[in-house]
Design a protein that fits this description.
single chain, 209 residues, TIM Barrel, eight-stranded parallel barrel, 8 strands, 39% helix, Thiamine-phosphate synthase, transferase
Length: 209
Amino acid sequence: MRSDFGLYLIITNPFLPYKKIAETAVKNNVRYLQLREKALSDREILRAAGEIMSITEGTETRFVLNDRADLAYLCGADGLHLGQDDISLTDAKTICREKVSVFGLSTHTLSQVDEAIKQKPDYIGFGPVFTTPAKAKPDPVTGTELIAEAVKRAGDVPVVVIGGIDGNNLISVLDAGAKNVCMVRYFMNSEQLEKRVKETVKILNDYRW
């Protein structure tokens, strides 16, 4: 049975401190909180991870590290998220051993969804749905038209829809079939993080698919 969770929060170049973001995630029962800071050194990533985990440890919010299986193992992250250009899920599990329990994979096309599902991840990301500057080298936009098919092909694996989603287009994404969403700039570029998270969680909880 599918285990959808609604909001997936990613930290990238945030306006607010890491601990404040983690506190907001825990307070609002956000299931996954990912650290995606590609410009930081390994030492800075581990320091940031420690700050976040000091808040999330022992709560329902799972801390996920982006890309780096080695650092996920070292800091004891709950999860690891891998992109299309990262090491394989099999290799990541070998590095992380039993320390990391949740693994996610990014996908940008329906064929990538098919390949990802074969690897049996705990969830997949799909997008970017809309144009977004969140990545230095953005992938081609999928549009909302492919969301329902991606969800269908994923079967029991939750799909997190990502890319250019904000308060203005969230409903259109849900109408297209998304049940789990990630909104990076909408949260990270705002000092009204808690207000926006609360509003988004309420929309997701109240929406009737």
